[in-house]
Description:
By secondary structure, this protein is mostly beta strands. Helices cover about 0% and strands about 55% of the residues. Strands 1, 2, 3, 4 and 5 form a five-stranded antiparallel β-sheet that branches. A five-stranded antiparallel β-sheet has the order 17-19-22-23-24, with no helix packed on it. The mean pLDDT is about 90.
Amino acid sequence: xxxxxxxxxxxxxxxxxxxxxxxxxxxxxxxxxxxxxxxxxxxxxxxxxxxxxxxxxxxxxxxxxxxxxxxxxxxxxxxxxxxxxxxxxxxxxxxxxxxxxxxxxxxxxxxxxxxxxxxxxxxxxxxxxxxxxxxxxxxxxxxxxxxxxxxxxxxxxxxxxxxxxxxxxxxxxxxxxxxxxxxxxxxxxxxxxxxxxxxxxxxxxxxxxxxxxxxxxxxxxxxxxxxxxxxxxxxxxxxxxxxxxxxxxxxxxxxxxxxxxxxxxxxxxxxxxxxxxxxxxxxxxxxxxxxxxxxxxxxxxxxxxxxxxxxxxxxxxxxxxxxxxxxxxxxxxxxxxxxxxxxxxxxxxxxxxxxxxxxxxxxxxxxxxxxxxxxxxxxxxxxxxxxxxxxxxxxxxxxxxxxxxxxxxxxxxxxxxxxxxxxxxxxxxxxxxxxxxxxxxxxxxxxxxxxxxxxxxxxxxxxxxxxxxxxxxxxxxxxxxxxxxxxxxxxxxxxxxxxxxxxxxxxxxxxxxxxx
Length: 516
């Protein structure tokens, strides 16, 4: 990394520090007389390349004509690199002083470091609030100075005890609180420890979610309770997971040491999965008749974790609505059937009912659980059903998740009589004198045809006249009626065909005619 190859030049006391997760090596350089300095060489990435300026020494932090030694560095939570070392200068060429400098980027450094106190072998650390502490040795004693403004001002020195070569604890995640930095140092015949830690207490979770719940479609599981942390200013995060799956956060807050951090999250069971909002948090179908586990705990930013609190629950897969009765054949019917039924929804979801004949909707409506309904075939649809063949009458119930139930009845329409009347009478300016009815039909022997016509169709009691013979043979009929009670004249026709003794099918394809 360094390649300054000259007799009498030394690069010593390398110390590794990190800023932005980038490593750097800080070292002391000497090429006496009167040529000394503190340098930092940072890693540039790209194929293990290090800064090669100044023959591999990197950027100069401090240079001068007097020896400098034992650099050490840390980064604080505001991403700033802080360096301490000891050295002499023109004002005191014998006694070394503790010196301090900092940089936000490895490259930018003050023109002159801060000259602090007489001493050597300094070790620097920081708490979570960026209060800096420098522990050093001076005249056979371990001493400490502290600063909250990067040693523009400082407190101390505080005497720790007799000894040399101090080393202070540095937690780069700043999760370990202390009043006095934990320090190891060399004493007479022993290595000693000095420091005051603030032990982190684990959070405690209280879960109000009830145990052994059974979840049906669209029912929620409330993850609710509170977390407490006795350590002031700890950042507390409440977390949960199901069946050991993906961990998700429920709540976050700063502790004041006493006030519980309340949390509540509604998890929804739908389609065999659990959802946190719109996120599928299980990723697989949850089995029925099996215990599933909800685990909830809290973690603080000092590495403390509460005990996991668990709750068991089971799920019932969504079931379709239930329609009363059984599928069956209603048989041969001469009149439209009417079948009573009720619909229930096991999960209490909303549902829609559709009644159909041969797939054609008769009616569709929002269902009411337990209410008696009746399915029948409207007269117009009934008349259009082909006699002698089987038809399907169905009831279909669909819940709001798309689960469907169907009840099906079959039936065969039987007819021994065909009758019809034109829907709207034909308006005339005067009384019609005659009428011609032409039937497109197959009328086997034994069948009975009855056809009637009137020329005062709007009367309360129209005068119907028998035109059966004329209709059978396609002949015109002369009206006998000359009276009306309604305001206008109108012609109407009605036809009835009875099976009688016929053994062959009767068919009507249509009719035509005229009047004058």
